[in-house]
Write a sequence for this structure.
């Protein structure tokens, strides 16, 4: 199932919460939705889950509009909100049973669905407990079970790992990977970017309601680490066109020119300048900067082998280098680099 | 066979009803309240039975016992079914839990209906708990079997209270909860003397007679009519944003006078068979009151509605002109609602001279008409201010300000005009007429009997208020026309869902 967010905008009075964003993804993958607080993530997610209506633009699930046919879309979308289950005086099993009945599951089919989901989310021991007696992590699991009770093809999650301890986060990651293996498309927003990097196949970054970058994780990291990005998707996304985050699209996309690899070399104090000059002699070196008289940062065009050759010229010239690092930026660094922390 | 039947019934039940029942019976407070009721009844039974033993000739101990139990039960029912339902629903709204129920295939009507079913079953439970003690009351002295049926009068009122609770809870706002508490206790204080009077009267009768049963039927019908409206309004509040939320409520309000007419006609034949002018006046005024009520709520709905409809509504618009007009009138949006008020008001206004009413009947009806036109005038003014000014203040806010302002401001000048009407000539007289009309509006609203104050209204006040209202309507007309032009099936309608998607 292809999920397509097309020119989505949402305006609250004078505030533009979401400003003409477009991206798409397909099933079997996990996509992160990243942005500072107040960037418009929850608004976008609520529109995708048919809880809110866009001012303009739309979300399509296999071409079916979420604005016009919300009832049909709700059958294929599961939504896990950032808030926790709040019903009082009701047990876990009764709570899930209510949602199973609400989705029209009957008799043995409902019992089977409930048993499966309780086993999958490891809620067996909690089924007779009241919701108010559960910890936050347990409630998150109940919330996930509720979102999955009707076996949706697309799972949309808003801050699912917020407030969870490391063990609960690890369990959640494992569950998400299993769901992705079951060919479900998972779209989740989170502030824990290091964990997103571990599980996500792609990401969408927004700030002040505008799309900053979108693409497969390799593409996004290649943007900041240099090397060859697999897809031109991120560049397209910024112009308001649809950025396809799916792996298939990435594989078939044309290759683009390398952008450069960031390297840093540590030298003895006062010996950085000769290293800088030596690096500048090489035609593949794009820029070199010196920091604190003992650190050289260079951007070198080419792949890993070419970078090694360029740095090798420094060693060949007999200059002293104490350490050498290839600077790898993660999702967190990318986020810090391209967002400015502005809120609306 | 039996288990299959039970399973079949279980599967056909509303999921919200099942959830509500689970929540009711797992709520500690409810269990405590029920236990207290049982205990209190038991103690009171012991007290009254021992008092009866020593009372000698006094044969009214059963009546006191009966009243005590029935009112304690009624208060408990209000606490559990009305306040309990309101609290739970309001919490579900504010916790956003209701949103997640709305993300299922449940319809908003199923949610409200499930909650109502839960409240009604709880009412039955409470009445079942009362039953053994009511039977004990019967075996004491001073109570006839027929007078036990007085409990029938309580049932529709308690269902209405429960519905009012569900309606108030559907907003999920604390200040509305506060208003609901004030309203529920205020109305109980207001109703209590009447209830005591009626019960006292019934207790002293051995035969209840036709009047009692007709009274019960009227009460049930009025409760039904008001209950349906509360249900539909709660449905409108709970419905998803930009959906056609007021459609059912508007259609019901439009049909309410006709439904009331059908329900009231049998009484005309029972009580108005003699065909005196008093009977005609009485039934016409009753029918007109339904029109007035329907009109007033429709005008209020117009003020609450959005200026622009969403594409979700346009997608359901028929492509032929007649269907489009009907869809426009009954869909959400202020424009259609404003237009809908006109036939509701115009029809009885035109029919009144031909109804064969007495002069006082005509004066009463036109007096009420004057108040209604002024209310529409206020609503139109609020809409003009809300939609045409750049103050970004909603029409409903303007309406509240206008109503409160009119109430306060018209007291002083209108009181002066009242004394010096004859001495003021020309244009000032016109202003005084408007002010006196507003004064009459305020007076009528405040007066315990609407018809008394309305009967003193001059007919020209109606003409003046109609003129002003018409001008306000003309000011709004461009916006209404614009809304109608927009109200059409979109040219670029999106792809509908596949069967596979719907089956999933």
């Amino acid at each position: 199932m292809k999920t397509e967010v097309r020119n989505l905008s949402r305006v609250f009075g004078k505030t533009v919460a979401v400003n003409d964003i477009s991206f798409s993804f397909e099933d079997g993958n996990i996509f992160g939705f990243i942005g500072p607080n107040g960037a418009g993530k929850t608004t976008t997610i609520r529109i995708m889950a048919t809880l809110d209506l866009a001012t303009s633009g739309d979300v399509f699930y296999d071409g079916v509009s979420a604005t016009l046919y919300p009832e049909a879309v709700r059958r294929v979308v599961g939504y896990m909100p950032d808030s926790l289950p709040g019903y009082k005086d009701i047990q876990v099993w009764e709570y899930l049973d209510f949602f199973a009945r609400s989705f029209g599951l009957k008799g043995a089919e409902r019992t089977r669905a409930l048993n499966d989901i309780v086993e999958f989310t490891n809620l067996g021991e909690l089924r007779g407990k009241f919701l108010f007696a559960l910890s936050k992590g347990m409630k998150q699991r109940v919330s996930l079970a509720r979102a999955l009770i009707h076996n949706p093809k697309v799972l949309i999650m808003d801050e699912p790992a917020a407030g969870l301890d490391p063990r609960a986060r690890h369990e959640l990651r494992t569950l998400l990977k299993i769901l992705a293996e079951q060919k479900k498309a998972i779209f989740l927003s989170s502030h824990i970017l290091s964990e997103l990097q571990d599980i996500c196949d792609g990401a969408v970054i927004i700030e002040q309601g505008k799309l900053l970058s979108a693409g497969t994780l390799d593409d996004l990291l290649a943007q900041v680490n240099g090397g060859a990005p697999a897809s031109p998707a991120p560049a397209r996304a910024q112009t308001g066109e649809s950025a396809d985050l799916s792996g298939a699209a990435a594989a078939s996309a044309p290759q683009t020119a390398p952008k450069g690899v960031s390297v840093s070399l540590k030298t003895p104090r006062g010996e950085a300048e000769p290293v800088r000059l030596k690096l500048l002699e090489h035609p593949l070196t794009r820029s070199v900067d010196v920091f604190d008289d003992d650190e050289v940062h260079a951007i070198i065009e080419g792949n890993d082998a070419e970078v090694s050759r360029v740095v090798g010229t420094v060693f060949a010239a007999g200059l002293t280098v104490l350490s050498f690092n290839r600077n790898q930026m993660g999702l967190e660094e990318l986020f810090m680099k391209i967002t400015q922390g502005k809120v609306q | 066979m039996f288990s299959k039947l039970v399973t079949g019934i279980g599967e056909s039940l509303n999921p919200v009803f099942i959830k509500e029942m689970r929540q009711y019976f797992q709520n500690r407070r409810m269990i405590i309240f029920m236990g207290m009721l049982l205990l209190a009844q038991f103690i009171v039974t012991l007290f009254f039975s021992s008092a009866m033993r020593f009372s000698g000739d006094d044969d009214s101990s059963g009546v006191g016992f009966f009243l005590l139990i029935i009112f304690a039960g009624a208060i408990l029912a209000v606490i559990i079914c009305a306040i309990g339902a309101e609290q739970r629903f309001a919490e579900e709204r504010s916790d956003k839990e209701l949103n997640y129920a709305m993300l299922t295939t449940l319809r908003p009507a199923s949610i409200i209906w499930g909650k109502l079913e839960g409240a009604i079953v709880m009412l039955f439970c409470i009445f079942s708990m009362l039953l053994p003690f009511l039977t004990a009351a019967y075996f004491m002295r001073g109570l006839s079997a027929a007078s036990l049926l007085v409990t029938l009068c309580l049932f529709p009122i308690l269902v209405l209270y429960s519905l009012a609770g569900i309606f108030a809870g559907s907003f999920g706002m604390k200040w509305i909860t506060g208003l609901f508490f004030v309203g529920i206790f205020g109305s109980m204080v207001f109703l209590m003397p009447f209830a005591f009077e009626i019960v006292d009267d019934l207790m002293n009768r051995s035969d209840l007679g036709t009047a009692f049963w007709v009274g019960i039927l009227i009460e049930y019908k009025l409760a039904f009519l008001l209950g349906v409206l509360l249900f539909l309004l709660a449905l409108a509040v709970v419905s998803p944003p930009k959906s056609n939320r007021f459609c059912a409520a508007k259609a019901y309000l439009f049909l309410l006078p006709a439904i009331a007419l059908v329900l009231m006609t049998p009484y005309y034949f029972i009580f108005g068979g003699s065909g005196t002018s008093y009977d005609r006046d009485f039934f016409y005024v009753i029918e007109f009151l339904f029109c007035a009520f329907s009109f007033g709520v429709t005008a209020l709905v117009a003020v609450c509605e959005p200026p622009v409809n969403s594409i979700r509504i346009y997608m359901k618009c028929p492509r032929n002109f007649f269907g489009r007009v009907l869809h426009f009138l009954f869909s959400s949006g202020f424009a259609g609602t404003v237009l809908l008020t006109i036939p509701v008001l115009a029809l009885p206004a035109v029919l009144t001279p031909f109804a064969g009413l007495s002069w006082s009947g005509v004066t009463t009806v036109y007096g009420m008409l004057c108040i209604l036109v002024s209310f529409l005038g206020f609503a139109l003014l609020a809409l003009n201010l809300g939609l045409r000014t750049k103050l970004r203040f909603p029409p409903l806010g303007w309406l509240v300000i206008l109503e409160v302002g009119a109430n306060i401001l018209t007291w002083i000048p209108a009181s002066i005009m009242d004394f010096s009407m004859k001495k003021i000539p020309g244009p000032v007289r016109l202003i005084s007429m408007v002010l006196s009309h507003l004064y009459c509006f305020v007076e009528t609203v405040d007066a315990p009997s609407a018809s008394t104050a309305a009967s003193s209204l001059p007919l020209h006040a109606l003409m003046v208020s109609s003129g002003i209202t018409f001008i306000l309507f003309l000011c709004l007309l461009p916006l209404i026309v614009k809304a109608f032009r927009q109200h059409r099936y979109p040219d670029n309608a999106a792809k509908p869902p596949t069967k596979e998607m719907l089956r999933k």
Summary: The two ends of chain A are 33 Å apart (CA to CA). The first strand of chain A starts at residue 3 and ends at 12. Confidence is low (pLDDT under 50) at residues 227-241, 247-258 of chain A. DSSP finds 13 helices and 15 strands in chain A.
